Automatic annotation (TrEMBL):
Membrane topology reported for the UniProt record: Multi-pass membrane protein
Protein name: NADH-quinone oxidoreductase subunit N
Function: NDH-1 shuttles electrons from NADH, via FMN and iron-sulfur (Fe-S) centers, to quinones in the respiratory chain. The immediate electron acceptor for the enzyme in this species is believed to be ubiquinone. Couples the redox reaction to proton translocation (for every two electrons transferred, four hydrogen ions are translocated across the cytoplasmic membrane), and thus conserves the redox energy in a proton gradient.
Catalytic activity, reaction form: a quinone + NADH + 5 H(+)(in) = a quinol + NAD(+) + 4 H(+)(out)
The protein's Enzyme Commission number: 7.1.1.-
Source organism superkingdom: Bacteria
Domain NADH:quinone oxidoreductase/Mrp antiporter transmembrane: 126-417
Subunit (UniProt): NDH-1 is composed of 14 different subunits. Subunits NuoA, H, J, K, L, M, N constitute the membrane sector of the complex.
Entry keyword set: Cell membrane, Membrane, NAD, Quinone, Translocase, Transmembrane, Transmembrane helix, Transport, Ubiquinone
Length: 478
C-alpha cells in the first residue's frame, strides 16, 4: 500500500478512510431503505470496525508521518487504535437488544458510533493541535447525539443536553489553550512546540493549563467530572458502556502523546497539574461512590477514580509511566465492558433493573453471572491475582521510580477505600435474600462477559506479551 497524492502519503490513513467511506455508504443505505435496515447496518458496522483493525495491523512497522506531520502512526497509535476499535465493536454487539426494540430501530446509532470511532482514531494519531481538535470534535459531536438515542426518555434527553453544554465549554477551553500555545511558540505541531517550549513562560503555562483542562473533561477527571454521573445514569446502558470504554482510550492517548511529546522541556509544570488532578480524581471516585444506590452512577464514580489511577502513571513522565498507562487502559476497558455486560444482563420480566438492591441474592438465581461479576468487581478493586491488581501495580511502581511517593501512597489508600463499595455489591449478591429471577441472558452479552471475565481472571498467565506490547508502544513516544 503506497498511495501518494500531492506529496501526501495516504497509506497511514487507509483504516480511517475505510471507516469514513463505509460510514457514508451505510448512511445512504439507511436513508434509502429506512429503519428496517437497523440490524443489517449494525452487523456491517461491526465488520467495518474489524476491517479497520485488520488494516491497522497490516500497516508497515515503525513510525509513519503524513499530512505535514499532523498525522502520526507509530506503535503507540496502533496499540490505542486497536483498543478503541475493540471497545466500539463490543459496544455495538451489546447494543443489539436495545436496537431490536420496534420503538428504537434507529439505524443512525451504529453510524454515529462509527463516526465517533473515526474521530478517536484521528485523535490518537494527532501530531499537532489542529488535528487534535478535529479528532476531538468529530468524536464528541457524535457522542452528544448518541447520548440522547432513547428519544422518548426524559433522562436520556437531559443527559445528552448536559453533555453537549459542558462539552462545548470544555472544547472552548481547549481551543483557547491551543491558541495561547500557538501564540507563545509560533507553531501548532507537537515537535515544533517541544523545540520552542524549553522554558516555562507565563503565557505558555496558561495555555497548557487550558489545554489540559479540556482533556481532563474528556477523560472525566476531577474537577471536570461533573457531567459523568448524570450522563452515565441518563444515557441508555449500551451507550454508557461506550462512553466508559472507547472514548476514554482516545482521550487518554492524546493526553499522553500531547504531554510527553509536545512539552518534554517543562515536565515539572504539567506534572504538578497531573498530580493534583490524579489525587483529586482517585479521592472523589473512591468516596463519592460509597453512597450510590444506582449501579450506573456507581460505575461513573468508579470511572472517575480509575482515570485518576491511570494519570498516576502519566504524572511520572517516564517510559515506565507511559507503559503503565497503556497497560492500565487495556485492563480497564476489559473490566468495564465486562461489568456493563452484567448490567445489561440484569433484566426482570423484560425490564432493565439498575438499582444495586436488585442484585440481591443473584448468586442463588444465576450463580455464573454472580461469579463473573464478583470477579470483575474484585479486579476493579485491584485485588490480586486479578488483572486490576497488575494495572495498579504498574502505575504505582512508575510513580515510585519517579520519586512521587506521596502520590503512590495516596493512590493505594484510595484503592482501599474504593474496595469497600465494590465489596458491598458482592455482599449484596451473595448474602442478601434473592430479589427475583433474572431473564435469560442474550448470546452476545454472554460472549462479551465470558471473554472479559476470563481475561481478568487469567491475566497473570499471559501478562508478559501484553506488557511487552505496551512497553514497545510506550517507547515509540520517546
Amino acid at each position: 500500500m503506497s498511495f501518494e497524492t500531492a506529496g501526501y502519503q495516504l497509506a497511514p490513513v487507509v483504516p480511517e478512510l475505510v471507516l469514513a467511506v463505509g460510514s457514508m455508504a451505510l448512511l445512504m443505505l439507511g436513508a434509502y431503505r429506512g429503519q428496517g435496515t437497523t440490524k443489517a447496518i449494525t452487523t456491517l458496522a461491526v465488520l467495518l470496525l474489524v476491517a479497520a483493525g485488520v488494516l491497522e495491523l497490516l500497516l508497515p512497522a515503525g513510525k509513519q508521518v503524513t499530512f505535514g506531520g499532523s498525522f502520526i502512526v507509530d506503535d503507540f497509535a496502533r496499540f490505542m487504535k486497536i483498543l478503541a476499535l475493540i471497545g466500539s465493536a463490543v459496544t455495538l454487539m451489546l447494543s443489539t437488544e436495545f436496537l431490536s426494540d420496534p420503538s428504537r430501530r434507529i439505524f443512525e446509532y451504529s453510524i454515529l458510533v462509527l463516526l465517533s470511532t473515526l474521530g478517536m482514531m484521528v485523535l490518537i494519531s494527532a501530531g499537532d493541535l489542529i488535528s487534535l481538535y478535529l479528532g476531538l470534535e468529530l468524536m464528541s459531536l457524535a457522542l452528544y447525539v448518541v447520548a440522547t438515542s432513547n428519544r422518548d426518555n426524559a433522562k436520556s434527553n437531559e443527559a445528552g443536553l448536559k453533555y453537549f453544554v459542558l462539552g462545548a465549554l470544555s472544547s472552548g477551553m481547549l481551543l483557547y489553550g491551543a491558541s495561547l500555545i500557538y501564540g507563545f511558540t509560533g507553531t501548532v505541531s507537537f515537535a515544533g512546540i517541544a523545540a520552542s517550549a524549553t522554558t516555562a513562560s507565563v503565557g505558555l503555562v496558561f495555555g497548557l493549563v487550558f489545554l489540559l483542562a479540556g482533556l481532563c473533561f474528556k477523560v472525566s477527571a476531577v474537577p471536570f467530572h461533573m457531567w459523568t454521573p448524570d450522563v452515565y445514569e441518563g444515557a441508555p446502558t449500551p451507550v454508557t458502556a461506550f462512553f466508559a470504554s472507547a472514548p476514554k482510550v482516545a482521550a487518554l492517548a492524546v493526553f499522553t502523546r500531547a504531554t510527553l511529546t509536545a512539552f518534554p522541556g517543562i515536565v515539572t509544570q504539567w506534572q504538578q497539574i497531573l498530580v493534583f488532578v490524579s489525587i483529586a480524581s482517585m479521592a472523589l471516585g473512591s468516596f463519592a461512590a460509597i453512597g450510590q444506590t444506582n449501579i450506573k452512577r456507581l460505575m461513573a464514580y468508579s470511572s472517575i477514580g480509575h482515570m485518576g489511577f491511570a494519570l498516576v502513571g502519566l504524572a511520572s513522565g517516564t517510559v515506565e509511566g507511559a507503559q503503565g498507562v497503556l497497560t492500565y487502559i487495556l485492563i480497564y476497558v476489559a473490566m468495564t465492558l465486562g461489568s456493563f455486560a452484567v448490567i445489561l444482563a440484569m433484566k426482570r420480566n423484560g425490564q432493565a433493573v439498575e438499582q444495586i438492591s436488585d442484585f440481591a441474592g443473584l448468586s442463588r438465581t444465576n450463580p455464573l453471572l454472580a461469579f463473573f461479576f464478583a470477579m470483575l468487581l474484585f479486579s476493579l478493586a485491584g485485588i490480586p491475582p486479578l488483572a486490576g491488581f497488575f494495572a495498579k501495580w504498574y502505575v504505582f511502581v512508575a510513580a515510585i521510580k519517579a520519586n512521587l511517593f506521596t502520590l503512590a501512597v495516596l493512590g493505594v489508600l484510595s484503592s482501599v477505600v474504593g474496595a469497600y463499595y465494590y465489596l458491598t455489591i458482592v455482599k449484596t449478591m451473595y448474602f442478601d435474600e434473592p430479589a427475583g429471577q433474572v431473564d435469560p441472558v442474550r448470546v452476545e452479552v454472554r460472549a462479551v462477559l465470558a471473554v472479559a471475565g476470563l481475561f481478568n481472571i487469567l491475566f497473570a498467565l499471559f501478562a508478559g506479551p501484553v506488557v511487552s506490547a505496551a512497553s514497545a508502544a510506550a517507547k515509540s513516544l520517546f
